[in-house]
Amino acid sequence: MGDAIADFLYEPDYCIDGVLEGSKASRAIYQVRVMNWLGRRQSWLSAVGARTWSISSILFTIGLVLPSILIGRYASYLISEGANMFPSAIWEAGFKANSEMIVPSFWRTTNKNVDLMGNILVVNIPQVIVSLIYLFFNSIFTRQLVADEWTRLVRDGGKKTLRVTSPVGLQRSSYFLSLPLKYSIFLVAGSIALHWFISQGMFLAQTRSFGAGPLGQWHPEFDVSARGHTVLGIVLAITLGAILVLGLAVNSVARGFRDISKGFQLLGMSSAGIGLMCQRPADDTDTHLFPVSIGVVPSQDASTAGSQGRLVFSTYIGLQRPRTACCYLQPALVEERKGPGGLSRAKEK
User: Fold this and answer.
1) pLDDT, tens digit, 9 for 90 and up, residues 90-146
2) Which helix (H) or strand (E) holds 204?
3) How far is Cα 65 from Cα 59, in angstroms, rounded to an integer?
4) N or C: which end of the chain has fewer CB within 10 A?
5) d(CA 265, CA 150)
6) Is the separation of the CB atoms in 313 and 277 below 8 Å?
7) pLDDT the model gives residue 337
8) Rounded Cα distance, 155 and 147, in Å
């Protein structure tokens, strides 16, 4: 976001007051217009679209429910075979390979290499699925943090230097892991632990047969490829996954953006919204190099009757915070609809 703000502040486009942005499937129209500023609290849920939440919820549910059902059935089978499935026994067994936990292949072929490759694919499928789910998890978290950083620019004392890839002047460097360190550590540690628990809960078991005697001749025709499981590894993976999803849900509901109008938090994730917000005063040069914030400056447009100023990025010392129930000239998402898109001018002054 910082790179986009810096670019638009360096060379703002004053010739447009509306931008059409989107793809062939859908498009959004952002326009500068006089609107009432209604300072309200918006939860972090609102930073992510309904479609993303729906897809993510389905993936999260599948990722938790499906392995829970499978481990439940597997535990029932082990109990029927006389295995001790009390929590103390599961903990004591740990991640050790046990002959009771070896599951034969779904198929048997005369080609041992095919059996081996098949089992390798099966034991790694959960890792691929978790990686896919993590992309949605990380996307939600990233959008929420970008929206939070954007809304902080409109608060009292919110004037900050921009985070960019190649800092110049007072600019700050971008985050090493794209997110603030306290969040990055949480996400990276959670992802590493989850993948490790899965690797301990489901793994490849390969046996080789050797003849008796000092020579110990190898008999490849008796080699067996199978899958090994540990109940503890699977249970810990499911538990950690549930904690991560629950933490994301609670964080999204409990935390919120303060004193902003509806939809304002979404402008920071749109190049169109950022571009319109960066139409700084013409005499406020080198804005991108110094601490900036979003505030109200006098509007020079005579056609904006009823407006009490323009909401833009600026370095002005006397920059005013937007007040509730006041009307300002500001960028806003006017319409979302299906149709051909791209990024283009919607209206010229």
Assistant:
1) 888 777 766 666 666 656 666 777 778 888 888 888 899 999 999 999 899 889 988
2) strand 202-207
3) 10
4) C
5) 7
6) yes
7) 54
8) 13
